[in-house]
User: Fold these one by one.
Assistant:
Number 1:
Amino acid sequence: MDALFDIPIIGLVVQFAVYLFDQFPIVAPIIAAAAVPIVLGALCGFMNERSGVVNIGIEGMMLLAAFTAWWTASLSAQLIPTGPGPLGITPALLIGLACGIGAACLASLLHAWLSISVRADQIISGTIINIFAFGITGYLNLLISQQAPPAAGQFSKFLLPGSITQLPVVGFLVKSFVSVGPIAMTMLIGVIVLQVLLFRSRWGLRTRAVGEHPRAAETVGIDVVRLRYRNVILGGVFAGLAGAYLTIEFGNAFQSGMTNGRGFIALAALIFGRWTPIGAFGAAFLFAASVGLERSIRIAPPTGSLGELLTAVPGQFYGALPYLITIVVLAGVVGRSIPPKAVGLPYEREKTGG
Amino acid sequence: MTPELHSPALLEMRGITKRYPGVVANDGISLQIRAGEIHALLGENGAGKTTLMNVLYGLAAPDEGEILMEGQTIKIASPHDAIERGISMVHQHFMLVPVLSVADNILLGDEPMKNLVFVDRSVASARIRELGASFGWEIDPDRPVGQLSVGWQQRVEILKAIYRNAKVLVLDEPTAVLTPQETKEIFGVLRRLKAEGYAIIFISHKLYEVLEIADTITVIRRGKVVGSRQPAATNEDDLAELMVGREVELTVDRGESHPAGSMLEVEGIFVNDDRGREVVHDVTFEVRAGEIFGIAGVAGNGQDELVGAVTGLRRAHRGTIRLGGDDVTRADPRRLHKMGVGFVPGDRQRFGLVLSFPLSDNLVLNDYYHPPYARGLVRDDDAILRGAEAAIARYDVRTPSATVPSQTLSGGNQQKLIVAREFEGDVRLLVLDQPTRGLDVGSIEFIHRQAIARRDTGVAILLVSAELDEVLELSDRIGVMYRGRIVEILDGRSASREEVGLLMATGGRSSGIQQQIVETGS
Amino acid sequence: MTAQTRVLAAWQRGRAVALVPALSIAVALLIGAMIMILSSPLVSGEFNPTLPVTAYQAMLSGAFGSFDGVVRTLVNATPLVLAGLAVGIGFKAGLFNIGAQGQFLIGALTAAAAGLALNEASPFVAIPLALLAGMLGGLLWGFVPGALKAYTGAHEVVVTIMLNYVALAVLSWAISGPLRGQNVTFARTDDLVAASLPIFLGRDGHIGLLIAAVSVPLASWLLYRSTIGFEIRTTGANPDAARYAGMHPRNLIIFTMSLCGLLAGLAGASQLLGEVGYMTASFSTTVGFDAIAVALLGRAHPVGILFGALLFGAMQAGSGNMQILAGLPVQMVGVLQATILLVLTAEVVIRRIFRVQASGPELVELASVSASYGGKGTG
């Protein structure tokens, strides 16, 4: 084995593989936890962009939802103090979740109105949502923190018997994907359902048509405006889940600007995943893995020449990796990612002409 | 089978008026269509035919007027309503989603369902195959539409319209993209559908087509119905006068040409399209000074890429292009312009104009960087404006001033603006790509006359047009393009429509009309 | 044209252009007032309908009520003018430079690195070199998305968003690593001495202010009087026509993005050398995003951007006073800025409410920004 490790370059690769194999079961739950909001955010982008609406406001929608979910949950917890049920569910948390989703849907409604009805530039619309969300949540958070409301707690994980999670090889996978909280479960279901619906259902067919050639869709009797509105607002549900995940499932507190670019990584995952739910899911896990790798190198640095190399790489590099990968993918270096054709184009029903 | 002319109308449009800012597109139009009738709507580009059909199809809301079906007033607020009432439409531009399969395109909007959620494609595919076979078409329902040739896309459009069990079928300029042979085939289909009892509205600006296929011809001019005719009781001259509102010469007299030496020599060039596939193979021809060389062909047979190579917008990766003896294979548009190449692009709004810029800036689009329009890096706005005013007067561009944005002009005046820019100066070669597409008869005449005048001053002209009639009318010699090759070069004065059409459809190698599906990759 | 008619024509044109933004600002301030009233129970425990009056008064007096306040407004406007131009000139070329933020950060970082290296040198050497370093850093951060857009069609919006985060990572690495100061308690550099910009006006009016002031007419000249500006605007309005007209859209896109990066980098350098004096990992985090709002408010015209920057600069200058006198967190300014942008974007609605005709030159180049997201690259 040691002889294998000493071969130049190949040795490093082998060491790296061994290191990953050792560490992966430990960091897998961390990766899965980091991936959940990214996947959910990407599903929001998916709903928008597949029907022809660019959404760079995912970040803002998530932030709004994170704040609203946390704040309303904490207010309701003061009104209806009850002990947690299964999965940590309390009425207060459910109210918070609903309000968080509601806030993201409201932001989506605004985005839909600006993009579809006003026919404003969709990127500007997304920018507005980001700036507004950052401002208003920061503003209200500061006002609230003067009274420091107690946290409402958080959803807890579905616990599996240790005999399953300690199974060799598959145990950690089961633990990462099944032993999770309710929002993370919703994410898994969402990915599978949307992937199937996209290619096999009427909704999927119509959404693809509207995202590629809205006029053609209109001429066969599909109401482009209504379909886009519906999809954009439904997209808000996923952004809402993503935000709520941060403040009432993964953690139980809100900090100003806490989404910290996750909404943009979600956008990147959507692009890297070629605008499909499964693809975005894979991309999000890859991106989250770079976070996990950084963590694992910091906590349990590998030994030998690999260890020297990896610890010499600044930790920030792993944080920036998803962004760099996205740029490389966009530039078409590793196969081109082609967006829906009509994305970004405002649709005008009645055009002047002949 | 002749329609029962006194039978009650299946569909009636009464007093339809549609106003857009600045124009009345439809002005009190009334129309009656019977079952088992092909009713032609004849009019110039911009006369209001498409608007009227958009009103019928729910794509435009009329300001006045009503629509009746079988005597009952109906309300059509969206295409959905129209489809519900049994109205189907084949639009002027393809309404197909390229990434979706033939079957998905056809059943979109009226999907057969397995259950509440999932689409049942197997039943639909069988029905589509069957329907296609009944017209003698072999349809592969699973093939992405983007991979089909233009002719086959048009067939899919027709299947899509029929698939919906329509009673009224509207076809807006369905032959514009087809060869004469394909047109004949489509006419056969229309006659059969007529016999089956469809009411068919056929829109065209081509007189001979209308005379051939229609039972009734309604002529529209500037948004109004100006007359109705039976084909038996009219002729092309009569219809043309009705359509344009004055006596027109349908063809410009091209006169004798006196070609001199070779100006443009294209020798064995190969050109790729945007996706990197080779679509022009080993093309060779020359255009002499003082002649018009026309290129005929069905759209999408490599003409765009050939024009791109000649005008410097694309690179030929093999072969040479010479202008007056100089190698210009690798010349960029600016160098070609300096060497005396003028170019009227096929998509004038995309390549020819900056719509938001004033006319004056558009007129110096090629020459903004040198005197008298600029000194060093600084623009001379006064000189630009003076030059613009002179050009506008010379080419009769109708505009309130030289400083209004060019998007405020009509299509004809926009094209005149481009002609004013490109025909001026020491031009040696003019490349005219679809120079009259979508224009009214007056503008077409103007541009044809200008082209012939420039030819007579010794300019070499390369004319590319999907409008076969235009090529036949103007060209001294005609090259026919088929699948990226020039398959034949004919004399412009002796070539017949049928001869050129057959070459366009088959490349001259097979005698059948049935065109193969052209592979265009993915 | 006589001088008088020229002035008159300019006034009418100016009024036509400024009317809708002015109305939008007014409507946005009203919406902001409603948000303040609604949140007033969190401020003082009870509804306070006069809170907006107190707040706006405090803001106004903070921004314009004293000489120092006015200088503060100007100083705040300085990076916004430069970064606003970095976004606005991009718009003119049909590019949406969301990356002004990253370019700003990198510009500040490279200026800091140069300034630290030249800490012992004469200010006459250190200042120009540090500013130059800032411009070059920003230029690089603009060149990359420009070149990627021109040659691979990668949309600049996504690339610049990604580069903003890469810039943050670079910054965090540099400040905690190679540039970390000697005797500091948190991640920051040593103080910049030689390269810090001299103050010439009031308490903190540094010479970056002059740089911003000069950049406005320069940008105007470039865009509207020079042939390069014509090429940039043509590329923005119709890249296909530009290519056919013998211009080189690819080069122009790279040039414009690099120029935008340079301006944003200069904004960062000026902010760092003129105001902060040392670099931290949490260095001014919103200038690049505020710049987008400024550019849109100014309709991408340099003069409009100047006004937009002054407005935002004043709001920021007055926000401290607002917090003290009205008890509203300074984040309210961000809310107001987003609201202004929102109302401006929905200008159709504003025009309908106030029955105003179309408001002069539209930002037509913007039409191609989102449209090109669908992957229709240039060339």
Note: Chain B has two domains: 11-244, 262-340+426-506.
Number 2:
Amino acid sequence: MSAGDFVQVHGLKQYFPVQKGLLVNRTVGYVKAVDGVSFGIPRGETLGLVGESGCGKSTTARSMLRLHEPTEGSVRIGETDVTRLNYRDLRSFRSRMQMIFQDSYSSLNPRHTVEYIVAEPLLIRGERPGANLQNRVQEMLQLVGMNPDHMKRFPHEFSGGQRQRIGIARALVLNPELIVCDEPISALDVAIQAQVVNLLSRLQDELGLTYLFIAHDLSMVRHISHRIAVMYLGKIMEIASYDELFEQPLHPYTQSLMSAVPITDPAIEKSRARIILEGDLPSPVQPPTGCVFSSRCPFATDLCRNSEPKPRDVGTGHSVACHHIDDRVVGPRITASREQIVNGLKDAAHHGPDRSFTYEPTQSNSSARSSFS
Amino acid sequence: MMRRRKTQGHTPHPPRSEPILSVKDLSVRFNTVDGVVHAVNSISFDLYRGETLGVVGESGSGKSVSMLSLLRLIPEPPGEITSGSAILRSGDESVDLISLSWKQMNRVRGRRVGFVFQDPLSSLNPLISVGKQIREIIERHNIARGSAAKRRSVDLLKQVGISDADNRYHSYPHEFSGGMRQRVMIAIAIACNPELVIADEPTTALDVTIQAQIIDLLMKLKREMGISVIWISHDLGVVAGIADRVMVMYGGTAVETGTAETVYRHPRHPYTVGLLGAIPKLHQDNKRLVNIKGTPPSVYSALRQCPFAPRCPWSFDLCTQQRPPLFALDGNAVSDSRHTSACWYDLEHNTRRTEGAV
Amino acid sequence: MRIDALDRQDLRRAPQRLARIVLRDKAGLFGLILFVLIVFLALAAPALSPHDPLQQNLRSSRQPPAWHEAGSMEHPLGTDNLGRDMLSRILVGTRVSLTVGFFGVLIASSIGLVFGMTAGYMGGRTDSAIMAVTNLVLSVPYLLLVVVVASVLGRSLLNVILIFGFTNAPLFVRVTRGEVLRIRTSGYVESAISIGASRHHIITRHILPNLIGPILTVATFEMSGMIFYEAGLGFLGLSVPPSIPSWGNMLAAGRQYIQFSPWIATFPGLAIVVTSLSMNLLGDWLRDVLDPRQRRSS
């Protein structure tokens, strides 16, 4: 994180009380969903936030946008510390930071038409219904590649990918600067995922948007992110630019995530080296002592189980929270595993389908198809 | 643990006798209030002993319906198998699954064919301990009884990698994590030494690191027990790592089939090409992904054209007039490993086809 | 059921969808028609009644219905023990039943909506307090309450309505609270917060519209229940005074003549059954129609 970053999150914590008791609720502990997360995003860039379910990535997003009240920490967007805004100011500030939700089934009110859904942010800001507003909605729908004629329809009349486009149109209508994308493609089919990711990339180029893009695996994040943060059990394990992260995944957890990304090449996928982690994600109510990853890390030592590693900057904005990446005993093993995994992945890059077709409609029949896209 | 998946896709199969499962011309439709949904349109395939067939497609492609209908696991009505046969062979004995009575089918399901579904939580009974659920299927199919059945259940739990199996036998499904529940499902699937396991998106609901565990486990068991596997998935990457042969489905039809190596390295159907191009590679330039325009087709009408034609950049008039048959691409006479594609356009030579169908 | 193909591509327009649902659910359509007819009969009762429902004529008492050999077209459904025209009394009785049902439900649902929404939206102590009172009201035996009120304040339509309104409110409180809790944590409310919506906006544009369906459905079932119970109270002599023709009163009066003049008790009984039935069918139908996501449930 540098001082000039557009988004600066510092020491963000989100604890949820665990309550027990029949008549009187006692707080018996805390789920440390987000436990001291810091990162920055320069204007116009995308930070990919990756981790498995339960690692706190979605909670981080919601705390940042104050959909949850953060327990501790600060979130600066531009010149504003979001955590200090009062209710009124927060409501008006929300136009500058928007969210795209994972579940487009539940995040669009089934009783509202597409027109109302996209216009609602403007209506809340006091704009009057009318031709002007309708034009704006049509513009937005066109921008996200939807047919504006369909704006009188209801969300359930659209496919998952189209509903996600509606969600994007709604998020964009206020001209926000920051958009938090909470697993916007996880529920979609592969071909539709690519459509949505391409759309988000294009919008970023055209509108200069800043994204926090959340995902549970590395493959799509790689495609849209400038920098990537890997999260595990409420903490950031590693953060680096995408080149750096894919060439030099230092943290054993990053390595295991990379080795778990399926590759679409049978020969390589069947033979490449991988780290298969044992066991499940530990409970965030009682995280392991020391390093939170120590209970599943194939390289863990007593040091890991006893003391928590602090994030260390290893140069060019690459920061890792691991004791052993450069010590003399365990370090070389981690490095060796890294090289095997990265080499496996690099092989795959050279062994795609035997020819790359330009996947564009031919001139003669493109008009017939325009109604489908 | 650092490990490499055992390679088994490349080992040339011994001269194969007969396939353990031959499906011919299977069609399934659903009669709904909105009309007839043609979910599966005459698909055919063979599966050999110890082989893994990957069935790939997007939601709505008919991949699950086709495989589940083989064992009559689709609701009937509204579902209806309108044509086809599915011969399950073992030794000299062979039965046509489609013509079996409900009672005969119950002796096949769980005994000769095991299942692993996407959502183990809804497939397991929440009120019965996991051990008892395994034991139940062992006793139902007369594999073992009483304490022998219990011992076998504990062994199965160990075999699927559940530590402390003796105590875990008494646990209930909600006490397990998603990955552990899927292990229990696998134990149930292999409890009666089946010849075939149908895995319907078994890792889709799991995190990537847990997914790796489950794939590893299933493939290990398959090798050890010589089971044939039909693996249904929307994830081309997952299938690449495990399948010997692949069948790509779209709009209720098989659009491309072949060995995994051929289909992934030399895709010949525009849909397969697009799908592979839509998946980002970790180490490749950040260029735009292939955009397959539009959305998958509605299957409310009987197929009289190529289902992919409306989205296909190469489609021409014939594509919308006649449904393409499967064309043999490599001239390979060995029927089970040949590469076929259901497309009127020959991508390899950039020509239009009119004949040469299989 | 895992049939992805069924889940997509439903791009039909809303009016067609409505027509489809209406036509599909034949029972619901029947209920709707029946209900409209009953409401019409209640409204037009004075005009349609061939006789004054209160006029006694002892000379023609206990005259059987028209299709009976001793009956006449002058009294199509016969007369009661005091010679009053059955058809006219049943028509006018519709008004009592519907009045009790309608206003009873109106009171109960209004109370339920206000307190249920407060409990669901505020949560915490407010919620606990409201739910405690709700459970308390539920635990009072309503028949006892009716007897007490009837003996203290006398028998009147208003008292019956008020008692039904208050004793049935807890159900509405619970349904409303449950729905509000569900909607409040739904994705679209979170989405509304994220675009800067005020509490007022969220309640009026997101929570209330989504409450109407479930509340209306419960209301029809409750209304049918109240009509049923009003008749029961009338039968026990605890509802409206005997001077007002209500189905319950008529049923009670006919009881002693059931052996020789069965029509006196049968017709009001039938009226109660048909009205209840129409509302239950209507309730099922409403549940389908009011859900825009409703597709193929059958």
Note: The mean pLDDT of chain C is 83.
